[in-house]
Amino acid sequence: MKNNIQKTAYTTLLALFLACTYSCSDDITEKNEQFHALNPTNTDDLAGTWKTFLLTTPNEFPLDAPVATNTPAFTREINEIKSYQVNISEDQKRIIKYWSAGGVLRWNEIMRTLVARHNRPPYQNEDGTYPAPSAANPFANPQFPFSNPPYAARAYAYVSAAQYDAMIATWHYKKLYNRAAPFTVDANLQVLIPKSTMPSYPSEDGVLAGVTVELLKLLFPTEIAYIDGKAEEQKLYRIISGANVRSDVDAGIILGRKIAAKFIARASTDGTGAAIGNQVLWTQLETQTAATGETPWLSLDLPARPPMLPLFGKVKSFIMTPEMVVASRPVPPPSTKSEQFAKELAEIKSYSENPSRKNMEIVTFWADGVGTYTPPGHWNAIASESFVEQNYSEVRWARNMALLNIAMMDAAISCWDAKYFYFNPRPCQMDPSIKTLTGVPNFPAYVSGHSTFSGAACAILSHIVPAKAESFKAMAKQASDSRMFGAIHYRSDCEKGLQLGEKVGSFAVARATTDGAE
Amino acid sequence: MKKFYLSCFLLAPIFMNAQTDIDGIMMSKNNFCVGAIYQYSSWDQYWEGSLKRENLNLGTVSTKSIGLMGNYGISDKLNAIFSVPYVETNASAGTMKGQKGIQDLSLTLKYMPLEKTVGQSTYSIYALGSFTTPLSDYPADYLPLSLGLRSRTASLRLMGDYQRGNFFTTFSGAYVKRANITIDRNAYLTDEIHYTNEVDMPDAISVNFRAGYRSNRLIAEFVIDNWVTQSGGFDIAKNNMPFPSNTMNALKYGVSSKYTFKKIPELSLVGGYNYVVEGRNVGKSDTFYGGLFYVINLKKTNKQDEK
Question: What are the boundaries of the signal sequence (chain B) (predicted)?
Answer without folding.
Answer: 1-18
